[in-house]
Specification:
The relative contact order is 0.11. The longest helix has 31 residues, at 168-198. The protein is an alpha+beta fold. The chain has helices at residues 37-47, 121-128, 145-150, 154-165, 168-198; strands spanning 2-9, 18-21, 77-85, 97-105, 110-114, 117-119. 34% of the residues lie in helices and 19% in strands. A six-stranded antiparallel beta sheet has the order 2-1-3-4-5-6. The chain folds into two domains: 2-130, Rossmann fold (3-Layer(aba) Sandwich); 174-199. Bound molecules: adenosine-5'-triphosphate. The site of adenosine-5'-triphosphate (ATP) has 15 residues, from helix 1. Adenosine-5'-triphosphate is lined by residues 12-13, 31, 33-39, 63-67. It comes from Pediococcus claussenii (strain ATCC BAA-344 / DSM 14800 / JCM 18046 / KCTC 3811 / LMG 21948 / P06).
Amino acid sequence: MKLKSIEISGFKSFADKTEIKFQNGITGIVGPNGSGKSNITEAIRWVMGEQSAKSLRGGKMPDVIFSGTETRKPLARASVTAIFDNTDHFLKSEFSEVMISRKLYRNGESQYQINRNDCRLRDILNLFIDTGLGKESFSIISQGRVESIFSSKPEDRRAIIEEVAGVLEYKQNKIKAENELGKTSEYLKRVNDLINELD
Ligand code: ATP
């Protein structure tokens, strides 16, 4: 699996539609301070489902939409599309090329797509769960992240290791099953109460 390209439009400093194609090997992005290098990695994290505006250096999510300059009006929508080569089917998808898209409008309305079909945020997150590409993984390390990993609480550090080790999916399924069990016990209690009343 490999990130083939990313298309950014109206996201942060990328007012115009900008396509970046990643070739084989290592890609380095160079540019003066403030030219938008970090915005590219943030666009990648955003399209993969990042939900924390703070971790994208904003106050609220619509802050990622191009906010205008002296010569240009703000835009109403941010849109990012990423295309992955999935010929090895590393991502849980039957397709050998997986395209994910995310759009956000100023009114807060958002849209997620996988291979041009509307989907839920959960579907995008599920695509990357336990691949080591999740938002808590080491695959994207932003500025200041190394220090924050070392100074984080042991349980937060454990969550990072669990994501990389691929056990997060099982843990989430366990929590879901435990919640269901809890609900079922409640129902059983209620049924027993009713039976007792009838007796
Ligand atoms: P450095 O080398 O200093 O880390 P960089 O190349 O990584 O810089 P970024 O941090 O990616 O640069 O980009 C910062 C620029 O993005 C700033 O000029 C900022 O004004 C601009 N920017 C951030 N959010 C928006 C937005 N919503 N609309 C327009 N421009 C934005």
